[in-house]
TrEMBL record:
Keywords: Membrane, Transmembrane, Transmembrane helix. Residues 428-437 have a biased composition (Polar residues). The chain crosses the membrane at residues 28-51, 245-266. It comes from the Bacteria. This is Capsular polysaccharide biosynthesis protein. The keyword Transmembrane applies. Residues 375-440 are annotated as: Disordered. InterPro entries: Bact_polysacc_biosynth/exp (IPR050445), P-loop_NTPase (IPR027417).
């Protein structure tokens, strides 16, 4: 798989990531929750409460005889859509505004109506800034609607009665005209002529018509024009928008958490970082040397133990390629590189190696902390000196390298003399007595004429005995090995050399050192971006540097 394909491939988010991603990006979740909660608190404290009162009006059809059973469908004769339009019409709004002494537009915004499906009920809801204004507004709107609707019915009745009166007047005039055609006098014995009989029939029909019209007019006049009645007037107490404040806060917290989790997953999808060993191996194209857990308050020993397992893989490479520096590289300075380098040097020293640790000055304090903690954890073992010991194996040559390679004088029988500055310890500042095959043998450290000062130090001797600490060479005895801390660029050309290289994004010295040595990449889980790691690998390949593998650190804690 090529680097471009590996870098563009998106990792599948599993069920465990649904919980792990919000926990890792807890700042986003906390920020979203705090923002939503603060918004709800601002609404509760800075916005006045809104009181909402409701008045219920039951409508009924207008009938001429309210004491008789209505015909089929009379209870559904009211058009509720039209009634709702009248309730929110200008007549009701303007009358309510005059009574409440408010602006009509403000009343229109505060007044709403509800029409339940399949019923003849109107609910008037009025929102006010106080309980009294809300109750007054709802009741006034309902009463105004009933009055306006009754006025409409009265106008309709007046028009209908006027129509009946005109018709009755017209029929009465016709009857009077027909009556003029009748004879003035007639005897009781005379038989009416056919013409007279027809005139009499016409008059009788007109009388019947007038009676019917009068009867219909009477029914219209006696009709009850009340459009309905208020069955549930608004009264105290009424709900307000701040009554459920605690519920709003709970909803804000839950909603903020949900929104924060969505934002965390969105940020995770957009931020392509190394999440696992397999993903880093795909990007680098090399196997992992190990995983070093995050360094924290209680995890220093765990990180050191992980580094010891990494050193097992590195020792195989050191045996096959002696005298080549091991350069620990990372793209940035916050990926746990210095801690990994220090623990790796400590692990090699605990395995009996004579290690030179080179690092820039800004990393020395952290490396000293790692070395002194390792010295407490693994105290130096007594050195066994033998005149016939080969170079580099706890003999005179190893002791000579403690003094940076000066020329040693011929020792007397039973005494080994080593050129270099004196090895100073808290117990024997001028001489170190060690065991040997000869019980009388004594190791004596003598200072040469010109040499860089060396201090075999522990936590209690750091920085003592020199005016310029940067020019000193710190030597720490750990177990059966030695770690010498020096500045970057002052490391020897032979022996086991571990280099804590500066971040490659800002300094090229690490890549340059890897050209003659070998690089070990440090990748921080959940911190190293895919693009940054791919860029570092491309730089090493372009420079012709060899990479032996990578170490995955524990992420943000490293």
């Amino acid at each position: 798989m090529t680097d471009s394909v590996a870098a563009s491939r998106q990792r599948v988010v599993g069920f465990a990531d649904v919980v792990r991603i919000p926990l890792r990006r807890w700042r986003i979740v906390l920020t979203a929750t705090a923002a939503v909660t603060l918004a709800v608190l601002a609404y509760l404290f800075f916005f006045p409460a809104t009181y909402r009162a409701t008045t219920v009006v039951v409508l009924r059809p207008v009938v001429t005889d309210p004491f008789t059973l209505p015909s089929s469908g009379a209870d559904r004769a009211i058009n509720m859509t039209a009634e709702n339009g009248i309730a929110l019409g200008n007549d009701v709004i303007d009358s309510t505004a005059r009574i409440l002494n408010r602006d009509p537009e403000a009343v229109r915004e505060s007044l709403t109506t509800e029409v339940p499906t399949g019923g003849q009920v109107l609910r008037f809801q009025y929102a006010g800034d106080s309980e009294r204004s809300a109750i007054t507004g709802a009741n006034t709107a309902a009463e105004t609607y009933l009055r306006v609707r009754e006025d409409i019915y009265k106008q309709q009745r007046a028009g209908l009665i006027l129509s009946y009166d005109n018709t009755i007047k017209q029929v009465t005039g016709q009857r009077l005209a027909v009556q003029k055609a009748l004879p003035n006098q007639k005897s009781s014995t005379d038989t009416a002529s056919p013409r007279t009989q027809a005139t009499l029939d016409q008059v009788s029909a007109l009388n019947d018509q007038i009676a019917q019209l009068a009867n219909a007019r009477a029914k219209v006049s006696s009709a009850d024009l009340s459009p309905g009645s208020i069955t549930a007037a608004a009264r105290s107490p009424i709900p307000s928008s701040h009554d459920a404040g605690l519920l709003y806060l709970l909803g804000a917290v839950l909603g903020g958490l949900l929104l924060g989790m969505v934002a965390a997953h969105a940020r995770e999808a957009l931020d392509r970082r190394v999440r696992s060993v397999d993903q880093a191996a795909d990007l680098i194209g090399l196997p992992a040397l190990g995983v070093v857990r995050a360094v924290g308050r209680h995890h220093d020993e765990a990180a050191a133990a992980d580094a010891r397992y990494v050193s097992l893989a590195v020792l195989k490479w050191i045996d096959r390629h002696p005298d080549r520096a091991l350069v620990v590289l990372s793209g940035r300075n916050d990926e746990g590189r210095t801690t990994v380098t220090g623990n790796l040097a400590v692990a090699l020293a605990e395995a009996g190696q004579d290690v030179t640790l080179a690092a820039p000055p800004e990393s020395h304090e952290e490396l000293k902390r790692v070395l002194f903690a390792a010295q407490k954890r693994t105290p130096p073992r007594p050195r066994t000196l033998s005149p016939s010991a080969p170079a580099g194996v706890n003999g005179s040559a190893t002791a000579g390298r403690l003094g940076m390679g000066g020329t040693a004088a011929t020792p007397a029988p039973g005494v080994t003399r080593i050129a270099g500055s004196g090895l100073r310890t808290a117990d024997a500042p001028t001489q170190v007595q060690t065991t040997s095959a000869d019980p009388e043998a004594t190791l004596i450290m003598e200072a040469p004429v010109r040499q860089t000062p060396v201090v075999a130090a522990g936590p209690n001797t750091a920085g003592s005995g020199a005016a310029d600490p940067d020019s000193r060479l710190l030597v720490v005895l750990i177990g059966g090995g030695v770690v010498r801390l020096c500045a970057l660029g002052e490391e020897p050309d032979s022996g086991v050399v571990v280099i804590d290289a500066p971040p490659s994004d800002t300094d090229e010295r690490g890549v340059r050192a890897a050209q003659t040595g070998v690089a070990v990449l440090v990748v921080a889980r959940d911190r190293t971006r895919n693009g940054e790691l791919t860029r570092l690998v491309d730089r090493l390949r372009s420079a012709g540097a060899q990479t032996v593998g990578f170490v995955l650190t524990g992420g943000r804690g490293a």
